[in-house]
Amino acid sequence: MDASSPTPAAIELIALTKRYAQGSVAVDGIDLRIAASSYCCLLGPSGCGKSTTLRMIAGHESTTSGDILLENRNITGLPAAARGTAMMFQSFALFPHLSALDNVAFSLKMKGVDKVERHGQAQNLLERVAMGHLSARKPGELSGGQQQRVALARALITQPRVLLLDEPLSALDPFLRIQMRAELRHWQRELGLTFIHVTHSQEEAMALADTMVVMNHGRIEQVGSPHEVYNRPASEFVARFMGGHNVLDTTVGKVAVRNDHIRLAPVEGAGWPATVSDVEYQGSYVLLGLQLDQAEASDKVSVMLSEADFVQTPYHPGDRVGLTWAPEQAHSFGAA
Ligand SMILES: Nc1ncnc2c1ncn2[C@@H]1O[C@H](COP(=O)(O)OP(=O)(O)OP(=O)(O)O)[C@@H](O)[C@H]1O
């Protein structure tokens, strides 16, 4: 392949559409190319169509129209087991009464592979995820992280090209969730597979993804690296959904300004006059809520100050301030 060729796509969606029987369009003609060996997160609010998209890729949901290609092979009409994808579910969904080894070997058993062969393959995979020594344990005798590795090995036993993960971390407590997501990222790199991970958490997607796909109402709002999406939100929806931004109505139209890029000055000086309405201490930073003089009552602005800056110039509810920002920090939509 010459240097100008794009990275090969593991998955390509072409005008993919899902209309459920009741007539509502869950996925509305989306086009998407997911690079091989990348970590892709499908992100969006509840009902935006991300799970339906994942289930169509998996073959657990029929398509209404459009195509799904896996490494240039059209898999749209294939049954789930023949696609080259595997799925990892919420909380890993391991069988509690089976050992780690039997959990991993389960799908081979269903295919009629004999015991010696399936146990051999399962043991190999458990060793690849550093779980070989615990293969006789049942899920209840394993830590959350160890269970996740068993679930990973179980998904990998069918030798998929693409691993699909449907909110795998959402049922875990916050501490374990952060630990587990680092593990997922580690194993994706280690195995060199393509991961497509559905989440409604901006933070999770930013921490994991090479490519984030932000969806809304069955359509893709933006595709990009976490840095691109956070620094250049393509639409007002993306700016608001990602958080950490203020959408401000200026003379040049609506712009997004990150809450750590807004500066506060005495109200007599330049800037938009506002009143501090609340002050939240967050540890390394302080979050201020402000009410703009000229905005509608509901339109609040948030400003993030480093703890050091706040200690130097503290603010209190009721303080009057002027807001300013550097022109290059104001990002207008459609100019990405
Ligand atoms: N089996 C179904 N029959 C009818 N409508 C459905 C079905 N499954 C999903 N929908 C609808 O399709 C739309 C997209 O649903 P989907 O589950 O893909 O969204 P989501 O972004 O994954 O949401 P969540 O984060 O809540 O799981 C929603 O409006 C939903 O109500």
From TrEMBL:
What PROSITE patterns would the database entry show?
Answer: ABC_TRANSPORTER_1, ABC_TRANSPORTER_2
Q: Does the keyword ATP-binding apply?
A: yes
Q: Which residues form the ABC transporter domain?
A: 11-242
Entry GO CC: ATP-binding cassette (ABC) transporter complex
Gene3D superfamilies, alphabetically? 2.40.50.100, P-loop containing nucleotide triphosphate hydrolases
> InterPro entries per the record?
AAA+_ATPase, ABC_SmlMolc_Importer, ABC_transporter-like_ATP-bd, ABC_transporter-like_CS, Mo/tungstate-bd_C_term_dom, P-loop_NTPase, Transp-assoc_OB_typ2
The UniProt keyword set, sorted, is: ATP-binding, Cell membrane, Membrane, Nucleotide-binding, Transport
Tell me the superkingdom of the source: Bacteria
This entry's Gene Ontology molecular function terms read:
ABC-type transporter activity; ATP binding; ATP hydrolysis activity
Protein name, please?
ABC transporter-like protein
**What organism is this sequence from?**
Hydrogenophaga taeniospiralis CCUG 15921
